[in-house]
Amino acid sequence: METTGQGKTTAVVAYITIIGTIIAYFMNLEPKDRLASFHIRQAFGLHILLYLIGALLGMFNEFYIIWAFYIFYFVLWGYGLIMAIKGEEREVPILGPLFQKWFSTIS
After folding, report:
1. Is residue 45 a contact partner of residue 102, using CB atoms and an 8 Å limit?
2. Which residues contact 29 (CB under 8 A, 6 or more apart)?
3. Which residue has the higher pLDDT, 2 or 85?
4. Is 25 exposed, middle or buried (0-12, 13-18, 19+ CB in 10 A)?
5. Secondary structure (DSSP) of 74-88
6. Can you tell me the distance from the alpha carbon of 16 to that of 3, in angstroms, rounded to the nearest whole number?
7. Three-state SS for 55?
8. How far is Cα 36 from Cα 44, in angstroms, rounded to an integer?
9. Which range has highest mean pLDDT (1-5, 6-10, 53-57)?
10. How confident is the model over 76-98, as pLDDT tens digits?
């Protein structure tokens, strides 16, 4: 796997909703790009986090808990997107290493 300009584009697309992650996955099938694969795993983990925690937060009616989660999510999402735009393989803080481990089959 190599890193190309196409890989950088694919990495950025991965952060644009879960649909973008799916599109990026198919864009990266042939040839595989290391940077794109890295960011597809990061973005997929972030999108899954959004939906799972969002469902759990549906049980709460506390404004501050809900907003704290969304701020946390958007900071991680923004960090991942900026790293993809820069073309760097830097994991999102706190959860990034877990995403790389859990979704290691996504390449």
Report:
1. yes
2. none
3. 85
4. buried
5. HHHHHHHHHHHHHT-
6. 20
7. helix
8. 12
9. 6-10
10. 999 999 999 999 999 999 999 99
Letter for the amino acid at 39?
Answer: H
Q: Where are the beta strands (DSSP E) in the chain?
A: none
Contact (CB, 8 A) for 34 and 3: yes
Region for 30 from its dihedrals, namely left if φ exceeds 0, alpha if ψ lies in -120 to 50, beta otherwise: beta
- Residue 45 pLDDT > 50: yes
| pLDDT of 2 above 70 | no
Cα–Cα distance measured from residue 67 to residue 4, given in angstroms and rounded to the nearest whole number: 37
Residue 41 near residue 14, CB atoms below 8 Å:
no
Rounded to the nearest integer, the mean pLDDT of the chain is: 89
C-alpha 61/C-alpha 77 separation (Å) is 24
What sign results for the dihedral spanned by CA atoms 59, 81, 38, 27? Answer: positive
| Per-residue tokens: 20 | 């973008």
